[in-house]
Design goal:
about 140 residues, alpha+beta, 3 helices, globular
């Protein structure tokens, strides 16, 4: 896998191509937690926990509702983080008629918003990316 972590300077950035299946969320959580641990002075622990949850929800949604390939980009600086999850589905409407999930769901983006993140969806070169931006008061 081509994982790039650039922890020097501002912002610290992680870019990670993700596995093409349900293991992607676990992979993304681990990588995000690693970057956040390396940059602990830029992000309080409780915010880091929220960011890992946001990463997990966005990647889980991509795997459930969109085609691959999937990729995670996490950019972190003091007081702000941006999380972008790219997938291979160009549909920006949010309609998930062919979702792979059989049991009730639909709370992922609500959880992300409840944690205080602003959400955006934009086209990318091979599909779309869902972007969450979280800000906090730096210590």
């Amino acid at each position: 896998m081509d994982t790039a972590i650039a922890p020097c300077g501002c912002p610290a950035t992680l870019h990670l191509p993700l596995l093409p299946d349900e293991r992607a969320a676990h992979q993304a959580r681990q990588a995000a937690a690693c970057l956040l641990a390396q940059e602990a002075d830029a992000c309080p622990r409780e915010i880091a926990e929220d960011l890992v949850l946001i990463v997990s929800e966005l990647v889980g949604n991509a795997v459930l509702h969109a085609a691959g390939p999937y990729a995670l980009t996490l950019s972190l600086e003091r007081g702000r983080a941006g999380i972008a999850v790219r997938d291979g589905t160009a549909d920006l409407t949010g309609n998930h008629h062919d979702a792979r999930r059989k049991e009730p769901g639909g709370r992922g983006l609500k959880i992300v918003q409840a944690l205080g993140a602003d959400l955006f969806v934009s086209p990318s070169d091979r599909g779309k990316q869902v972007i969450a931006v979280l800000t906090w008061q730096p210590r």
